[in-house]
Amino acid sequence: xxxxxxxxxxxxxxxxxxxxxxxxxxxxxxxxxxxxxxxxxxxxxxxxxxxxxxxxxxxxxxxxxxxxxxxxxxxxxxxxxxxxxxxxxxxxxxxxxxxxxxxxxxxxxxxxxxxxxxxxxxxxxxxxxxxxxxxxxxxxxxxxxxxxxxxxxxxxxxxxxxxxxxxxxxxxxxxxxxxxxxxxxxxxxxxxxxxxxxxxxxxxxxxxxxxxxxxxxxxxxxxxxxxxxxxxxxxxxxxxxxxxxxxxxxxxxxxxxxxxxxxxxxxxxxxxxxxxxxxxxxxxxxxxxx
Length: 290
Known about the structure:
Layout: E1 12-15, E2 18-21, H1 32-36, E3 39-41, E4 44-47, E5 50-51, H2 54-67, H3 76-89, E6 95-103, E7 117-124, H4 132-137, E8 139-148, H5 165-176, E9 181-186, E10 191-194, E11 198-203, E12 206-210, H6 219-230, E13 235-238, H7 242-245, E14 250-255, E15 259-266, E16 269-270, H8 275-288
Parallel strand pairs: 8-9, 8-15, 12-13
Antiparallel strand pairs: 1-2, 1-7, 3-6, 4-5, 4-6, 6-7, 9-10, 11-12, 11-14, 14-15, 15-16
Helix pairs in contact: 2-3
């Protein structure tokens, strides 16, 4: 199933209030969201039939749309039910759920306030983002020239599709050099995150993570910070210089898709997944499966 192109898969997708055949869930080529990135989305994982922090994700979807001057025509409760319906229609218990909202094809131009806001929700089986062998040693990151933009140049608090363009370019560049992902700095030169996952470092038993003031404050990131505090692990949100990061004892990434992903290499510097990374991973795994 993992190798089947997404447009050729079978099943059902919730689309504008009803379940439609997977292959029939299409949009017009002149859809505004395709041309001008008027699109926001979420990524949600379900464990044992229960989507983790479902309402929080759908609240963020609605807020992301509002930031892009879009009003989603469904409440959080309706979106929650739609996510569950998508899972049930495809007979899924452990899966990834992708809600997306976008402007339609009624008008094509930069300004299109009267276009319809479409909403679709797809769900599919998606195991660990990386193989168990790779997770054991940690993935390799390559520093990219692309940086997270200043907060007054992009709607960074929105999980907007357009903000992932530089992540795609950076990840492709890293992949061509044999790396699993890219390390991104922010517009000031501080450490930011990977292309679609937040970053944590550990030094002398203490955790640090970059301040999320120009990139998305991930729900998994927030969860990990809370887990660390509850476990009595020192955690600080702060500016991190690249030189400091390279002196870390442990580094790991967090995200809905990535979950807890150890980092074993950045550029030519190697790291070893250690006690704190394993502890956070165990705490997160227990929480999402509870």
